[in-house]
Write a structure and sequence with these properties.
It comes from Galerina marginata (strain CBS 339.88). This is F-box domain-containing protein. The protein is an alpha/beta fold and 284 residues long. 36% of the residues lie in helices and 14% in strands. Strands 1-2-3-4-5-6-7-8 form an 8-stranded parallel β-sheet, with helices on both faces. 29% of the residues are buried.
Length: 284
């Protein structure tokens, strides 16, 4: 018998399949999921252990709108007909770090936010109940987009409470009345230790100037205006970015939550370019 006759096939049933260490296997799956939400959804079907690894990616962003609907790319939390919570509700809210709630009932907003213990980026629009305030203040929010009237009962004079958001770095304040754009109502912003980015709709010159001079870590101030009606500022500052109010505000937010370009990143690039050009001219 020749030596060839003694050779065994490479995939003999007697040879065990190679097994990767669990830590390495998980790292490979997570690397693939980090680059594609659809990939994470597909990989979650491989095995139960893989699904558990994928859940932080699948539920990283939650978007809930009127009638409890959500964009197709994000997981639903409610059954579309009965409006009952889906089995994934608890797991999804627990993993969520980016949450957008728009025009949802008070009870829904409360249920979702109570479960989102790890949310760092919150958008709360067209949702009026002030009872949410007591829930929001317990969350580790770093980036907040919110209508000002949610922060304070309508019967009380508005005053921003800095103690509610000790971790806040980015504030996008949606203001519908000019009287909520005065510095004496927002002066507590200067007491936030980590605040670097602020955006306002229709800010007064006094508000802009006070925030830039009294909030010591501010790097960017975005001023949203409609059309070409913009106030005349008494100061020139590279950190001020003036732009028109966005039409697709929710789409822009979703781009940012998914790691894409949105108004904060565009403003950062604008300010960085100005400062770089100013530095180049200064060294010429």
């Amino acid at each position: 018998m020749s030596d060839i006759d003694n050779l065994q096939p490479l995939h003999s049933s007697n040879v065990p399949d190679p097994v990767l260490p669990v830590e390495l296997e998980r790292e490979i799956f997570e690397f693939a999921a980090a680059n594609s939400l659809s990939c994470a959804a597909t990989l979650s079907l491989v095995a139960q252990r893989v699904r558990e690894w994928m859940e932080p990616f699948l539920y990283d962003v939650l978007v809930l709108k009127r009638r409890l609907t959500n964009p197709p790319k994000y997981p639903p939390l409610y059954e579309p007909i009965t409006k009952e919570k889906l089995p994934r509700f608890k797991r999804a809210t627990l993993h969520a770090r980016h949450v957008l709630l728009q025009n949802v009932p008070q009870t829904v907003a409360e249920d979702v936010l109570r479960g989102c213990l790890h949310v760092v980026n919150l958008a709360l629009w067209d949702t009026k109940p002030h009872s949410l305030f007591s829930i929001i203040k317990s969350l580790p929010i770093q980036r907040l987009s919110i209508e000002v009237d949610i922060l304070s009962p309508l019967s009380d004079p508005f005053k921003f409470d800095h103690t509610t958001f000790p971790c806040l770095t980015h504030l996008d304040a949606i203001v519908h009345w000019e009287e909520n754009c005065e510095w004496d109502e927002w002066e507590n912003l200067a007491l936030l230790p980590n605040l670097t980015h602020v955006a306002f709709e229709y800010p007064t010159p006094g508000l802009i100037e006070n925030i830039l001079t009294k909030c010591k870590k501010i790097r960017v101030f975005v001023a949203f205006y409609r059309g070409n009606s913009r106030p005349t500022l008494m100061i020139e500052d590279d950190r001020i970015v003036e732009t028109r109010t966005m039409i697709d505000y929710d789409e822009d937010w979703q781009h940012g939550a998914d790691g894409g370009e949105y108004f904060w990143s565009i403003a950062d690039d604008t300010v960085a370019t100005r400062q770089r050009e100013r530095g180049t001219k200064g060294n010429a």
